[in-house]
Amino acid sequence: GAGVSQSPRYKVTKRGQDVALRCDPISGHVSLYWYRQALGQGPEFLTYFNYEAQQDKSGLPNDRFSAERPEGSISTLTIQRTEQRDSAMYRCASSLSGRLAGADTQYFGPGTRLTVL
Amino acid sequence: GQNIDQPTEMTATEGAIVQINCTYQTSGFNGLFWYQQHAGEAPTFLSYNVLDGLEEKGRFSSFLSRSKGYSYLLLKELQMKDSASYLCAVSSGGYIPTFGRGTSLIVHP
Q1: B34: closest chain A residue by CA
Q2: How are strands ordered across the β-sheet holding B53-57?
Q3: CB burial class (10 A; 0-12, 13-18, 19+) of residue A27?
Q4: Which tens digits make up the pLDDT trace of A68-93?
Q5: A52 half-sphere exposure, CB direction, 13 A CA radius
Q6: Which residue does chain A place closest to B42, by CA atoms?
Q7: Chain A within 8 Å of B94 (Cβ-Cβ)?
Q8: Of A99, A107, A111, B93, which sits with the fewest C-beta atoms within 10 Å of its C-beta?
């Protein structure tokens, strides 16, 4: 595809359920990032990968959150035992080389709106 | 830690010029980004500054002063479609950019 895609676009779940959010980056992009964005706020970093290796997961709120990118392309962000405070827009971004220098910018996906009841 | 500050909201008139400021305090600096985000959509890249000075790109320009921890985004000949949130993001030692909360720009006729 031409851009970053995410699925599902909307997810409503009950508290205590597990959810898996998928990100399909731009083909050939080395780096993949996960962000969480609250309404009226900027994106908040969660974790990122270079190829299949998770380089930084310092932004994951707690151990209920995990992410993987097993083949260096598609990534899944999993939230276990969801809580109401997990409700947010979860965005994925990818960049060509991961250095974020010059034209190597991040391209964001449309996001998954997660609502935990 | 990092602190990025930008005004919450600004209004301007179609055809006018508007300047959106961003100040930052970071440990290390590798560059500053500006993104545009329309309501309900993904952020899209506008500009990147790593050296002091002005970078011009069509109707949009971005300025950086590293010594002052200051940047601004200048939008000229405003159009209604420029109504959006403008996000300032700073990349420091770890290269992962930290985003400000964004400035909501409202352009009215």
Answers
A1: A105
A2: B3-5, B18-25, B70-75, B60-65, B53-57
A3: exposed
A4: 999 999 999 999 999 999 999 999 99
A5: 3
A6: A110
A7: yes
A8: B93
Question: Is the minimum CB–CB distance between A42 and chain B shorter than 8 Å?
Answer: yes
Interface with B, mutate which of A106, A112, A113 (most B CBs under 10 A): A106
Per-residue pLDDT band for B91 (boundaries 50, 70, 90) equals: confident
The residue among B102, B95, B98, B100 whose CA lies nearest residue B41 is B102
Interface of B with A in 30-89 (CB under 8 A): 30-31, 33, 41-45, 48, 50, 87, 89
Buried b (16+ CB within 10 A) or exposed e, B11-43: ebeeeeebebebbbebeeebbbbbbbbeeeebb
pLDDT of A100 higher than 90 = no
The answer to whether A109 and A4 are in contact (CB under 8 A) is yes
Q: Which of B101, B88, B1, B104 is nearest to B45 (CA)?
A: B88
Comparison of pLDDT for B40 and A19, the residue scoring more? A19
Contact criterion met (CB < 8 Å) for A40 and B89: no
CA distance B103 to B105: 6
